[in-house]
Give the backbone structure.
Amino acid sequence: MSKQYKYYWEDFAAGSTREFGGVQLSEADIVRFASEFDPQPFHVDAEAARRSVFGGIVASGWHTCALAMRMMCDAYLLDSASAGSPGVEEVKWLKPVRPGDTLRVSFTVVEARPLESRPNIGLIRAQWRMFNQNDECVMQMLGGGMFQRRPPA
């Protein structure tokens, strides 16, 4: 017997939108991530960051991507029949993310189609947009996800 999931490909119709998240970042969060994965001075050194074009510590764009992924997992992926992803087509970091910012994600399905080569799998193409507490879009991504199709009743 196969596991029953809450979400299958059929639950991601083209045009549908979901909003989720609400993660607040501290300076310590930003520095901790950047120290390990993106140790550029404006992410890890307060004095160097003050002298930079940003005027203070800002989160790595890769940190925002990782946060978006975590929010996706918590909102739907861990309860879904996910079959992975063929990749991300585009990532844009539109505004700096600063200590104290609270981030949320809006996820819109742009396209949904069954895979011809694997009829039990469907593909979605989606746009993820991350907003701060001021409703400013700080990041957007376009990419795909594959999900098992709902088993027949």
